[in-house]
Write a structure and sequence with these properties.
27% of the residues lie in helices and 17% in strands. The chain has a single domain (23-308), classed as Ureohydrolase domain (Arginase, Chain A). It is of the alpha/beta class. Helix 3 packs parallel to helix 4.
């Protein structure tokens, strides 16, 4: 434990069901000042098109994060020994006005990123990623993007509306906040409206890796190539929980058959260690459809993994201490 840095409240100091209702039971902060990374929630589901409930996602993710411990036994990362991290609460969106909410989110994320703090956002539906990208790009310019999802989220409109959880990446491209030469989408799958649904991004030069291509595979070789492709550009990571198989993450609004395994999700995030991560989010957790809490638990673990790959956090994999060769 490094002195001077915020630490999660330990399970031997306070039973896991108790303590503050913050991410990993971290201390709170009024704002991003003095922080290297800030965890914040966007309690929104007014951009959803099927099952609602993601407005309760940030609260559920925080609750299920209570079992997480500060040291990553797989990668050796110890984010709380190297970075000042706190939970700065939720963005006060307007639950009756999606357009107003998008602007509120852009301003809130922009304030976090402006001081060099990395916003780590708990969703909330995927609409939030468009204004989050805008807010971060105000400080860094066009961003590289790694987007993990069952859906491309590049619709022209939904029910005639330009802002919805199926449109954020088309809006981001149109707003000029993406570096189109460094955009990767992983895990896209399911049914579509036309055979060419995934080609819109391909025509812009985006790298599209479908769910069928990654099914059942070790994704470490892929992620080594993704990290090289992204390079040292400022990177935003957006992770939709519906990218996972619905049996692993049923608590989401637009579930699709198939999907990646939770261990593949860990490989994807860990594979971005060393990249210039300047913002990230975990979206689309819907607690009303998460009877066991497992969806929010997996989501919390993935957010922790994002903290573990932030710039300034060394990766120190433990040496192998057995005689087996496999």
């Amino acid at each position: 434990m490094a002195p001077g840095y915020n630490q999660p409240l330990g399970g031997n100091d306070m039973p896991r069901p108790g303590g503050p209702a913050t991410f990993m039971r971290l201390p709170t902060a009024e704002g991003p000042e003095g922080l290297d990374a800030a965890v914040l929630g966007v309690p929104m589901d007014i951009g959803t098109s099927n099952r609602p409930g993601t407005r309760l996602g940030p609260r559920a993710i925080r609750d299920e994060s209570r079992m997480l411990r500060p040291y990553n036994m797989a990668t050796g990362a110890a984010p709380f020994d190297h970075l000042q991290i706190a939970d700065i609460g939720d963005v006060p969106i307007n639950l009756f006005n999606l357009e107003a909410s998008v602007e509120i989110i852009r301003q809130a994320i922009g304030r976090v990123a402006a001081g060099g703090t990395v916003p780590v956002t708990l969703g909330g539906d995927h609409t939030l990623t468009f204004p989050a990208l805008q807010g971060v790009a105000e400080s860094y310019g066009p961003l590289a993007l790694v987007h993990i999802d069952a859906h491309a989220d590049v619709n022209e409109a939904m029910f005639g509306e330009a802002l919805a959880h199926g449109t954020p990446f088309r809006r981001a491209h149109e707003a000029g906040v993406l570096d189109d030469a460094r955009v990767v989408q992983i895990g896209l799958r399911g049914t579509g409206y036309a055979a060419e649904d995934f080609d819109w991004g391909r025509e812009l030069g985006w790298q599209i890796v479908t769910g069928e291509e990654v099914a059942g595979r070790d994704l470490r070789p892929l992620m080594a190539q993704v990290a090289e492709y992204v390079g040292d550009a400022p990177l935003y990571l957006s992770f939709d929980i519906d990218s996972l198989a619905p049996g692993l993450a049923p608590g989401t609004g637009t579930a699709e058959a198939g999907g990646i395994a939770d261990w593949q999700a860990l490989q994807i995030i860990r594979g971005l260690a060393g990249c210039n991560l300047v913002g990230c989010d975990l979206v689309e957790v819907s607690p009303p459809f998460d009877a066991t809490g497992n969806t929010a638990m997996v989501a919390a673990a993935l957010v922790y993994e994002m903290l573990c790959i932030l710039p300034g956090v060394p990766q120190r994999p433990a040496p192998r201490r057995h005689d087996f060769d496999f």
